[in-house]
Amino acid sequence: MMEVTFLGTGGIMPTAERNVPAIALRYGGETLLFDAGEGTIRQMNAAGLSPMKVSRIFITHFHGDHYLGLAALVQTMNLWNRTKPLHIYGPKYSYEFVKNLLSSGFFKPGFEIHVHELGEERIMFKGYEVQSFKVEHGVPALGYVFRENDRRGRFLDEKLEEYGIPKGPILGELERRGWVEWKGRKVRLEDVTGPKRRGIRLVYTGDTVPCERTRLFSEGADVLIHDATYINAEDRGSSYHSTIGEACEIGRKAGVRRIVLFHRSFRYSYDEYRDAAERLCDVPFTVPRDLDVIRLR
Ligand SMILES: [Zn+2]
Ligand SMILES: [Zn+2]
Questions:
Q1: What are phi and psi of 209, to 5 degrees?
Q2: How far apart are CA 212 and CA 114, in angstroms?
Q3: Which residues are near ligand 2, the ion (C-beta closer than 5 Å)?
Q4: Which of 35, 65, 222, 227 is the catalytic position?
Q5: C-alpha to C-alpha distances, 40 to 54, 61, 73, 154, nearest whole angstrom
Q6: 137 and 167 fall within a common domain
Q7: Which ligand is nearest to the CA of 262?
Q8: At what angle do helices 70-79 and 94-102 cross, to 10 degrees?
Q9: Model confidence pLDDT, tens digit, residues 133-178
Q10: Based on the domain organization, do 92 and 161 belong to the same domain?
Q11: Is residue 65 flagged as an active site residue?
Q12: Could you read off the pLDDT of 17-27 as tens digits, one per residue?
């Protein structure tokens, strides 16, 4: 089970209803944050998420709307006597920017903070991996793929019967060890289970113009959270953002199950933007409001 909470869905400027970007992903007792715009700690409080459970923060790029909440978040963790180390990941220059931000004011954290500067790489964790990929935003910027490990297939009744294995503690042993000796025969886990089940894949682009790498890294994803700041290309000016139509075209080409239209400009009302998405998007889409939750599996 995975739960994605949109802590802030706006772009560039916070409004009365919406905060700047931050996405919380709860998985296996851990909370991962993707971006942490100003006010993320308050949004977490509103969503009922504890900052103490945050183990890793992935920053897409160093524009204020995506990282200025880090300082308040870290200071709050400290006030609550955090001792667990915190890992912060981001593109080139992360080390310098994060260090400068966190060393402002009369503050010294009582826990370790590790900053990891990433290029395009895969980082393996328990039960999942995160892959970073480069996007195009005029400054060093990364998108992230969250990939849950594939899970074993389901136990097949007919196979269990064939080997004469009863349902009970023996299945637990089979699961743990990968094989058991049963009635003089060695039975392996794969002998009595179906095909592996693919883990959940979620992609977050951060800010970007439409780019081929996003399509490549989103291939077959369950959810693609894509920059869709604008309805019309004319509104974009010289900024490096995407329109609803561009985001959806990438989602369609990549064959994603659902696209989340993110970083919506403050200039559009919810209804106006949603109507445009109905018109422009030919894959299942979501226009999230702040604190909306998506549950996967
Ligand atoms: Zn932004
Ligand atoms: Zn930006």
A1: -75, 165
A2: 31
A3: 63, 207
A4: 65
A5: 12, 16, 7, 39
A6: no
A7: 1
A8: 50
A9: 999 999 999 999 999 999 989 999 999 999 999 988 999 999 999 9
A10: no
A11: yes
A12: 999 999 999 99
